[in-house]
Design goal:
Elements: H1 2-15, H2 41-53, E1 60-63, H3 65-71, E2 84-89, H4 94-98, E3 105-109, E4 112-113, H5 118-127, E5 133-140, E6 143-150, H6 156-170, H7 173-186
Antiparallel strand pairs: 1-2, 2-3, 3-4, 3-5, 5-6
Helix pairs in contact: 2-6, 6-7
């Protein structure tokens, strides 16, 4: 909200009729806030969607209690930093088909011990490509189990969700709301 208010405060003089803008004239397309793309919003979004479409997905969401504790200013030391759990499984996704269950503690991802830093793990997820075999070692009920699954190409609804998250994290709230509304109007079944 603060960024939107600041943007409106700074942009208001540029949008006033005395500055040569009329209500019929649309403002220029916003530029990307990050240095990774300096072209128009539409070009940057199209490029990012194409990049994400190459990713593979295993159909699960994971969670680290350490990260959540740190975010809510709780005592993060109560939880080991490398503690990761399966939180959600997509029905008929590779993870659920392999036998993984909600609540499994992830010990290793492709023979690498789970990191304390969420950005490291997000990087591993970003490396996954459709068709890639991924080995996940978990702890369940005191037993160590290993699952092998194959990442699949993301479905359109998942790409929509990833893109809405990307816009939310990298653009102003106004741009995010407009983009989200457009996605929902084009594909009402998207999250």
């Amino acid at each position: 909200m603060y960024k939107l208010a600041l943007w409106l405060l700074l942009a208001a003089p540029l949008l006033s009729p005395s500055a040569g803008w009329s209500q019929e004239t649309s403002a220029p397309e916003p530029k990307v806030a990050s240095p990774e793309c300096t072209e128009s919003f539409a070009v940057c979004i199209e490029r990012k969607r194409a990049e994400l479409a190459l990713r593979g997905t295993v159909g699960m969401k994971v969670h680290s209690p350490h990260q959540v504790s740190a975010e809510i200013d709780d005592d993060a030391e109560d939880h080991p930093a490398d503690l990761w759990f399966v939180m959600l499984l997509a029905p008929n996704g590779p993870a659920s088909k392999s036998g993984l269950r909600v609540g499994d503690r992830i010990l290793k991802w492709n023979d690498r011990s789970m990191p304390a830093d969420t950005t490291v793990f997000e990087g591993w997820l970003g490396e996954a490509r459709a068709g890639q075999v991924i080995k996940i070692e978990v702890e369940r009920g005191g037993d160590t189990l290993t699952f092998t699954l194959k990442a699949v190409a993301p479905e359109e609804w998942l790409l929509d969700a990833w893109m809405v998250d990307y816009v939310r994290e990298n653009y102003s709230p106004g741009i995010y709301e407009a983009y989200r509304a457009r996605v929902l109007s084009e594909r009402p079944e998207s999250p």
